[in-house]
Design goal:
The strands form two sheets. Strands 1, 2, 3, 4, 6, 7, 9 and 10 form an eight-stranded mixed sheet that branches. Helices cover about 15% and strands about 30% of the residues. It has a single domain, classed as Immunoglobulin-like, CATH 2.60.40. With about 160 residues, it is of the alpha+beta class. The chain has two helices and ten strands; from the N terminus they run H-E-E-H-E-E-E-E-E-E-E-E. It is elongated and about 85 Å long.
């Protein structure tokens, strides 16, 4: 009887879940590598800023861009931030983009080629896309406490993806 009781208690203890535990210490977002095609960089005077962008809205038009960047909460996010830029004239760079949990329908690299900030001074130069059609955006879904790796973007300044605006 004692053996059965001990065996029953052991099975009962082993079958219990851990109960309430704190959520994992992971800030949501995604990361990967941006690959720049060799010998396609434009002249330095047309490189004011380069950003990785993540938009919850696709397709975009000029109204949606500025509304998405400056709304509260925003629906378009820039990495490394509005006042910083990705480095120029590199072959590749790794990035880690922390942002709110959401589905990002359009992820890519945005070039600001004039000093003023307007839709006419911006162009998409690379998109996180599907293998068979790299110019077609591939959505990235980020859940709470999830960081997704492998969100890679290829940039060729001579072969731009279709412009959304």
């Amino acid at each position: 009887m004692r053996i059965l009781l001990a065996l029953g208690c052991t099975v009962l203890v082993l079958s219990c879940e851990p109960g309430l535990s704190p959520p994992p210490n992971v800030e949501p977002g995604f990361g990967g590598t941006v690959y720049f095609e060799r010998s396609t960089w434009p002249p330095a005077d047309s490189l004011n800023n380069l950003w990785i962008f993540a938009s919850q809205v696709y397709p975009l038009d000029s109204v949606k861009i500025f509304a998405g960047l400056f709304s509260t909460p925003p629906t378009i996010f820039l990495y490394p931030g509005f006042t910083a830029s990705l480095p120029f004239f590199v072959d590749s760079l790794s990035y880690a983009f922390n942002l709110p949990a959401a589905t990002y329908q359009y992820v890519g690299v945005l070039q600001q080629f004039r000093e003023e900030i307007s839709v006419r001074s911006l162009k998409v130069v690379g998109v996180h896309g599907a293998g068979t059609n790299p110019s077609q955006p591939l959505e990235v879904r980020v859940d709470d406490f999830q960081f997704i790796h492998g969100v890679n973007i290829h940039v060729n300044f001579h072969k731009l993806p279709p412009q959304p605006f």
